[in-house]
Design brief:
The complex is a heterodimer. Chain A has one domain (about 1-525): Quinoprotein alcohol dehydrogenase-like superfamily (Methanol Dehydrogenase, Chain A, 8 Propeller). Helices cover about 5% and strands about 35% of the residues of chain A. Chain A has two helices and 37 strands. Chain A is globular and about 60 Å long. In chain A, about 60% of the residues are buried. Chain B is an alpha+beta fold. In chain B, a hairpin with a 2-residue loop joins strand 1 and strand 2 (about 135). In chain B, helix 7 packs across helix 10 (about 230-240). The chains are: A mainly beta, B alpha+beta.
C-alpha cells in the first residue's frame, strides 16, 4: 500500500514541496526534502528495502560527474522524482533521480577574487514550492525556478570582499529561507538570517556576536566584537512544536590568538535557539568559552524527545568538535550530561553547567603545543545520525592531534584574521578515524568501525538497520547499525567529503553520496 | 590605480618579463615573511616547504615563475585551484615575493662536485638511489634533489637518515597466514589494503585481512654515513647532490 502511494507521488506532475510536507517529512520516506532529510537533524531514512541481510547486493545505479575541480561537499535533495544538488563553487544541478540525466544546470558567474577559508565549497540547496534556493561563495542568496533553473531573485547576504561567503545549505522554515554565513577566518561579524521565499526580502537577522547594549557584548573586550567571527556555516535543525530554530555557531576570530578578545566571546562555539518568527534568542549553550583552538559548534543539532531519568523530555544530542558529547534540554538549553567521545588532552572534564574544566598549558604558544583533538576537531561539520530503532547516536570521529601555534594578528578587511597558523597534520603522526556508535543518554561508546585515515563524510542510518558512511580513501560502506560490522563497501575512486542520503525511485530504495567530483547512487541488485 | 593597470594590459603583456619587483631589501623579505606566515603557511608550510599546497621553495612555480606571475597569482589567486587571492596592496605582495625568492636563493656549497660524484659511486649510493635513470629504486630518486631540498637538509640526510623519513619510505613488514614475510617500502595504505615495493623492487598490493601480522617502521633503512665520510668528503658529496637540478628553463 505504501509503495502504491509513493509511486503515485513520484509520477504526479510536480507536486510541490510545502512547509507541511517538510514538517511531516518522516511520513514520506521516499523523499529527502531538506539537508538532513527531516527537521530533527537525524539524517535517518525510514526506508527498509536495504537491510543488514541484503546490503551486500548493493550496486551502482548511476553516476553524475561534475566538470569541476573543487571539493564536493553537497548533500543531495530529492523531491518528487527530481534530485537537486550543488556543484562547487556555487552551481546548482537538477537531474532525474532515476537516471541521473540532467534537467537543468545553473552556473553561477563569480568575481575573480573570493576568499573562502577552506575551499570554494557548497553543501547543498533548499527547496520550497516552485523554487530552489542556493547560497553562493560571493555571499549571495539566490532563488531559482525549480523547473528551469532560471534566476527568480538574487540578494546580497553580505560583502564577500570582507571575507563573508555562503557555503551552507539553507533551511526552509515556514515561508522563510534560513541562511547562515561563513568567514570565521576573516574576522567577520557572524549572523543567521531569514529571507522571504517570495522575494528575498530579509525578515530578520540574529547577530551571533552581540553589539553594544545587547546582552553578551560584555563578553568581548574592547572593539573585538566587530571582528569576532561566529559564523553559521552548517545547516541547523527546527523544532516545530516550540517554533525554535536550533543552530551551531562557529569559532571566534582570530582563531588561535585570543588576546584581543578577552572574555567568553558569546555566542561563538555555541548552540543557539531562536524564535523562528522573530529571530530572537530563546536560549544558548556555549561549548567552549573563549576558544583559542578553532573548535566551532558547527554540528547538526540532533533533536530527540525521549525519557530522561524517568521523565519525558525534549533533548538535543551534540557531539562537538572539542571531543565532548553533550545532552542539552531543548526547552532551556540547560546542560544535562556530557563526556569525551574521543581522545582529548585539554580539559579535565565538564562541570555541572557543562563548562569545560581546562587543564594548564593548553593555549597556543609561539613554539606550539600538542593538543588532542587537532585543529579539525574530534568531529567536524559532517553529519551525525540518530536511529529511533537502535536508539544509538552515530558519528565520524577523529583520533588526532595538532601543534597549536600562536602568532601575530592584524585585521585587514577581506584577509585572514587567524592569529598564526597551527600545524594541522603531523606528517609522522597522521592519526586515524572511526565510525562510532554512542549511547546518546551517556555518551558511552557502543561500537566502532576503525578507519586508517580520518573521515570527512557524514553518516546516514536507515530503518533497514544499516549505517552508511564514507572515507577519504574513497570507500562508501554499509555497517550493521547494531554492531558496526561491515556489510558492504565500494571504492568510488575519490575522497568522500559529504553526507549520504536515501530516497525511493520506481519502487526501489536508492542511497546517494557525493564522492570525488561525482554523485554516486546505489540500489540493490537482483537478489534483494 | 587598478584602472591604469587594466588600460595598459597590452603593454604589460608585451613586456611582462620586464616587470620587476621593486621591493627587494632584507627588510622587505622580513615583512614578506610575516605576511607569508599569516596568510600562506597554512597550505604552503611555515617555510614554504609545501603541505596541502605545493612547495614554494624550489624556485620553479607551476603557474609562472616571473615576478609578474607571482604578483598576479598571489594578488588574485589561481582560478580552478584552492589558491585564494590576497586583498592587499601590490607593495605588500611584492614583499611576499621577495620572501619567496629568499627561500630559493641558491646556497653556495664549498666542496668538490667531481669528487662528490665519485664518492656517490664508490659508497654504493646508487644501489638504492637513482640519478637520471641510473641506479636503484628503493630510495628516493635524486635527479633533482638540489632543487627540492636545502643544502642543510641534504647534509643532514647523509649523516642522520632517521631525522626526516617521508611516509613513502616507511618500512613495511607483512606476514601472511602461511608465515611468509615480505618487506619493503610503503607506497600506499588504506583501511583494507597496503601497497609497497619489496627489496627486489617488486610491487605488492595485499589485503590486510589476509595477513597474520603487519608492521610499519617509521625509521630509515639507509645506513648513516656519520664517521664513514671525512668532513671534506661530506662537503664534496653535498656539493654534488646540491648541483643536481633540472637542466633547461623553468617550465
Amino acid at each position: 500500500m505504501k509503495s502504491t502511494i509513493l509511486l503515485v507521488l513520484a509520477t504526479a506532475a510536480w507536486a510541490q514541496v510545502t512547509f507541511d510536507r517538510l514538517k511531516n517529512a518522516p511520513n514520506e520516506p521516499g523523499q529527502w526534502m531538506t539537508y538532513s532529510g527531516r527537521y530533527d537533524g537525524w539524517r535517518y531514512s525510514a526506508l527498509d528495502q536495504i537491510r543488514r541481510d541484503n546490503a551486500r547486493n548493493l550496486k551502482v545505479k548511476w553516476v553524475y560527474q561534475m566538470p569541476v575541480t573543487h571539493l564536493v561537499e553537497t548533500s543531495p535533495i530529492v523531491a518528487d522524482g527530481v534530485m537537486y544538488f550543488t556543484e562547487p563553487p556555487s552551481n546548482v544541478v537538477a537531474v532525474d533521480a532515476e537516471t541521473g540525466r540532467q534537467f537543468w544546470r545553473y552556473r553561477r558567474e563569480l568575481p575573480k577574487k573570493i576568499n573562502v577559508c577552506c575551499g570554494q565549497v557548497n553543501r547543498g540547496v533548499a527547496v520550497l514550492g516552485d523554487k530552489v534556493f542556493v547560497g553562493t561563495v560571493d555571499a549571495h542568496l539566490v532563488a531559482l525556478d525549480a523547473k528551469t533553473g532560471d534566476v527568480l531573485w538574487d540578494v546580497e547576504v553580505a560583502n564577500y570582499q570582507h571575507g563573508y561567503s555562503v557555503t551552507v545549505a539553507p533551511l526552509i522554515v515556514k515561508d522563510m529561507v534560513i541562511c547562515g554565513i561563513a568567514g570565521g577566518e576573516y574576522g567577520i561579524r557572524g549572523f543567521l538570517d531569514a529571507y522571504d521565499v517570495a522575494n528575498g526580502k530579509r525578515r530578520w537577522r540574529f547577530w551571533t556576536i552581540p553589539g553594544p547594549g545587547e546582552k553578551g557584548n560584555e563578553t568581548w573586550s574592547g572593539e573585538s566584537w566587530k571582528t569576532g567571527g561566529g559564523s553559521t556555516w552548517v545547516t541547523g535543525s527546527y523544532d516545530a512544536a516550540q517554533n525554535l530554530i536550533i543552530w551551531g555557531v562557529g569559532n571566534p576570530s582570530p582563531d588561535w590568538n585570543g588576546d584581543s578578545r578577552l572574555g567568553d566571546n558569546l555566542y561563538s562555539d555555541s548552540a543557539i535557539a531562536l524564535d523562528a518568527d522573530t529571530g530572537k534568542l530563546k536560549w544558548h549553550f556555549q561549548f567552549v568559552p573563549h576558544d583559542v583552538h578553532d573548535w566551532d559548534a558547527v554540528q547538526v543539532p540532533v533533536l530527540v524527545d525521549d525519557e530522561w531519568r524517568g521523565q519525558r523530555r525534549k533533548l538535543v544530542y551534540w557531539a562537538h568538535r572539542n571531543g565532548f558529547y553533550y545532552v542539552l534540554d531543548r526547552e532551556t538549553g540547560k546542560f544535562l550530561t556530557g563526556r569525551a567521545f574521543a581522545t582529548q588532552t585539554w580539559a579535565k572534564g565538564l562541570d555541572d553547567n557543562g563548562r569545560p574544566i581546562r587543564l594548564p598549558n593548553i593555549d597556543p604558544t609561539p613554539e606550539g603545543v600538542y593538543i588532542y583533538p587537532g585543529v579539525q576537531g574530534a568531529t567536524n561539520w559532517y553529519s551525525p545520525s540518530y536511529s529511533p530503532r537502535t536508539k544509538l547516536f552515530y558519528l565520524s570521529a577523529w583520533e588526532n592531534r595538532s601543534v597549536y601555534r600562536k602568532g601575530d594578528q592584524e585585521y585587514t578587511p577581506g584577509n585572514r584574521y587567524i592569529g598564526s597558523v597551527p600545524l594541522i597534520d603531523l606528517p609522522d603522526d597522521p592519526g586515524h578515524g572511526a565510525i562510532r556508535a554512542l549511547n546518546p543518554k551517556t555518551g558511552e561508546k557502543v561500537w566502532e568501525y576503525k578507519l586508517h585515515t580520518k573521515p570527512w563524510a557524514g553518516l546516514l542510518s536507515t530503518a533497514g538497520d544499516v549505517v552508511f558512511g564514507g572515507s577519504d580513501e574513497g570507500h562508501i560502506f554499509a555497517l550493521d547499525a547494531q554492531t558496526g560490522r561491515e556489510l558492504w563497501r565500494q571504492n568510488t575512486g575519490g575522497v568522500i567529503r559529504a553526507n549520504a542520503m536515501s530516497y525511493m525511485s520506481r519502487g526501489k530504495q536508492v542511497v546517494a553520496v557525493a564522492a570525488g567530483s561525482s554523485i554516486f547512487t546505489f540500489e540493490l541488485g537482483d537478489a534483494r | 590605480m587598478r584602472f591604469t593597470l587594466l588600460v595598459s594590459i597590452p603593454l604589460l603583456l608585451a613586456a611582462q618579463d620586464e616587470t620587476r619587483n621593486p621591493l627587494t631589501s632584507p627588510a622587505d623579505a622580513a615583512a614578506g615573511a610575516k605576511t607569508f606566515r599569516s596568510h600562506c603557511s597554512e597550505c604552503h608550510g611555515l617555510k614554504g616547504e609545501g603541505g596541502r599546497g605545493p612547495s614554494l621553495a624550489t624556485g620553479v612555480f607551476y603557474h609562472g615563475s616571473t615576478d609578474a606571475d607571482l604578483l598576479r597569482n598571489i594578488s588574485d589567486g589561481i582560478p580552478g585551484t584552492e589558491m585564494p587571492g590576497l586583498f592587499y596592496s601590490p607593495d605588500r605582495v611584492w614583499q611576499v615575493v621577495t620572501y619567496l625568492r629568499s627561500l630559493n636563493a641558491r646556497e653556495s656549497v664549498a666542496g668538490d662536485r667531481q669528487n662528490g660524484a665519485k664518492l656517490f659511486r664508490s659508497k654504493n649510493c646508487a644501489q638504492c638511489h637513482r640519478i637520471q635513470g641510473q641506479g636503484g629504486r628503493l630510495g628516493p630518486d635524486l635527479s633533482q634533489i638540489g632543487r627540492n631540498r636545502a643544502v642543510a637538509h641534504i647534509r643532514a640526510a647523509i649523516v642522520d637518515p632517521d631525522a626526516d623519513v617521508r611516509q613513502r619510505y616507511w618500512f613495511v613488514s607483512a606476514t601472511d597466514k602461511q608465515g611468509r614475510t615480505n618487506n619493503g617500502f610503503l607506497m600506499n595504505e588504506d583501511t583494507y589494503t597496503i601497497q609497497f615495493m619489496d627489496m627486489g623492487e617488486r610491487l605488492h598490493s595485499l589485503n590486510k585481512a589476509d595477513l597474520r601480522e603487519f608492521r610499519v617502521e617509521k625509521t630509515s633503512k639507509m645506513p648513516s654515513y656519520k664517521g664513514a665520510l671525512t668532513e671534506s668528503e661530506l662537503n664534496d658529496l653535498t656539493a654534488y647532490l646540491t648541483s643536481l637540478r633540472p637542466t633547461g628553463g623553468a617550465r
